[in-house]
Amino acid sequence: MAIRVLLVDDQPLLRTGFRMILEAEQDLAVVGEAGDGLQALDQVRALQPDVVLMDIRMPRMDGVEATRQITGPERDGPAKVLVLTTFDLDEYVVEALKAGASGFLLKDAPANELVQAIRVVAGGEAMLAPSITRRLLDKYATHLPSGEEPVPDTLHTLTEREVEVLKLVARGLSNAEIAADLFVSETTVKTHVGHVLTKLGLRDRVQAAVYAYESGLVRPGAQ
Q1: Whole-angstrom Cα distance, residue 132 to residue 106?
Q2: Nearest to 95 by CA among 214, 217, 200
Q3: What angle do CA 216, 220, 223 make, to 5 degrees?
Q4: What is the 3-state secondary structure (H, E, C) of 119-186?
Q5: pTM of the predicted protein model
Q6: How far is CA 19 from CA 10, 28, 67, 156, in A?
Q7: Residues contacting 119, CB < 8 A, separation 6+
Q8: Cα angle 190-174-176, degrees, rounded to a multiple of 5
Q9: What is the dihedral of CA 93, 99, 102, 104, to 10 degrees?
Q10: Interatomic CA distance for residues 179 and 190, integer angstroms
Q11: Inter-residue contact 53 to 5 (CB < 8 Å)
Q12: Alpha-carbon Rg of the chain, whole angstroms?
């Protein structure tokens, strides 16, 4: 079955461009469009898309709040959110990742990257662009809002190796890169990542990276 995509952007011309790109792919289907966050919530409930391509800065309700409601505990469906941003160092992107987005992409990314990002997110993985993600976290981690409650002190539940893996995830390394760094197989890395997410109650690698910074395990700028 085709991956169902909802386009959310306050610029109709951009939505038209994205639609043309996506509808050229046999495994992707654009099921609707929205011009702001409130419309996006209505469309998610009505259309049940697999992936929401979400702009950040929009009228009435921005992409951060819309993402929070779409991916929150009272969510109406399985939709994943892929955030679109004009700038690769946009603090709102970090807020969107904390709100539950599965990743982000620059609006001027090549068409093939947009298509691949949607497929990755639809498959349940986080869309992490390692270099940009790390720059974002390095720049804004010290300013990340704490939320309603402080991050729980659950690091003690992880094994020493799981802590190592979490640090490398936070640095934006892929499974292959982590495997090479620790001299283990990619399968072993995937197992460790899965244990980390389960023990810390996190959804994906994006949340794991943010958690590592918020908990103080990784410091901005640290190698």
Answers
A1: 10
A2: 214
A3: 100
A4: HHHHCCCCECCHHHHHHHHHHHHHHCCCCCCCCCCCHHHCCHHHHHHHHHHHCCCCHHHHHHHHCCCH
A5: 0.70
A6: 14, 10, 20, 46
A7: 3, 27, 28
A8: 70
A9: -10
A10: 9
A11: yes
A12: 17
218 and 167 Cβ atoms separated by less than 8 Å: yes
Q: Give, as one character, the DSSP assignment of residue 84.
A: E
**Regions of the chain where pLDDT drops below 50:** 145-149, 151
Distance separating alpha carbons of residues 203 and 181, to the nearest angstrom = 24
Q: From CA 42, how far away is CA 26, in angstroms rounded?
A: 26
Dump pLDDT digits (tens) for 78-127: 789 998 887 655 667 777 777 888 888 888 888 998 898 898 888 877 66
Report the distance separating Cα 11 and Cα 135, nearest Å: 27
